[in-house]
Each structure stands twice: as structure tokens, then as C-alpha cells.
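Assess this one:
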Amino acid sequence: MVWKDLRKMNSCNFVLGIDVDFLQDKDKFDYWYSQMLGERKAKIDKFRPLNSKLLSLGAGIVLKRGLDMLGFTDSVILEDQNEKPYLQGATGLEFNLSHSGKIAVCAFSDAPVGIDVQEPERFSGNLMNFVYKDEEIKYIKYRSENQSDIDRLCTKMWTMKESIMKYYGKGLSMDPRKIFIDLEHGDKAYYDGDALENIFFTEYEHEGYYITVCSRYESFSDEISFVMGE
């Protein structure tokens, strides 16, 4: 089944994920590296830490798997002025990648989409002040009984903010402190005081990781399909 068939069925929104631990096996790494196109190999090569290489390759695998499923095998991937990737000549197909820890994910849609995955990390006061508005910090502390609760809620909210930045293709050129997520009133989002209209969040958890998709759909996909790379 290819992209045009999925669009007719209104089932063109899905997320693929992968656990990159298996890529620590050199033979498997070398095999999957050989399957990547030039631009993905260049991304992998520029990283020095091994885990960064594994995650970049994992992102390439889920992207390749998704494009193969949709009938876009060996398509050319380009980047716009904000370094957001897109598929040359594939009108109406949008995708977005993210990775963290040992997980890489890719969201596919027929409309703009942003995705972010994060493993919980410790949010110090300085980091919270850099990322969140005063109203958000008050809400986080009100909803938290201990530091672990703060870390989980901060991580969840960060995936929401970053998915917005990636949805709009702006990355960190959008000031995260100007993004306000009103969790008490239906997860409404604002930027610099203005409501961000017609965007919705779909949230997932996987083995302690928080994953958020920002899209035009109130319900994006029921679950993430994790693929095997062996």
C-alpha cells in the first residue's frame, strides 16, 4: 500500500520508532549504514560520540522504513532554510524525526507535523527558568510532590514545546520561553501571547520516554509502531 492509497483511506498519520541498542553490534551497524543515502551518512559521520552515531543511524532507519512503506524508496531528502528535512517531489507528504537516549522516532503525515522524544532529565532552577514562563513553573511545582515529579512534568512539557518548534520548522529560533502551554485548559498553546490555532498534541510514553506529536489532527495515531532493525 502506497501513499496515495493511505490518503484515500484517511490513515496517513503514523509514527515509527526504534531502539538503537542493537546497532552496537558492528556488523549490524555496518549493514544499516550501507543502506543509507549520502545525506544521512554525512549526518552520522559528523558525530563523534558512539551513541550519537547510533541515534542518527536509527533515525535514518525509521525514515527509510516509513518511506519504503509509502512507496518512496530511494527518494531524495533535502533541507529547507531552517534545516527541516523534506522529500523532493513528494507533494503532501510531511515527516519529522527526533531521537534521545536510545530511541529514535519519525512521524509521517499529509500535513505539517513535529515530533519530539525525551528521556526524563533533572531540571535545575536555571534550566527551568530558561525554558519555562513563571506561570508554567508555578503550575509544575503545584502539580509536583518531589523532584522526580518536577523532572517528569518538565520533560513532558518540553516535548510539547519542541514539537511546536519543529511543527513550524523553526527549531530553537522560536524562543521556548515565549511558548506557553496551558495544561489546565486543554493543552492550548500560545506564542508571545498569541494563540497558536489549529494545532493539537498527541502524547505517548515508551519505557520511560516521553514523546509528543504536534499536528493538525486532534488524534494522530493510537500508538507508535516500533520496528526491528535486525
Q: What stands out?
A: The chain has a mean pLDDT of 89.
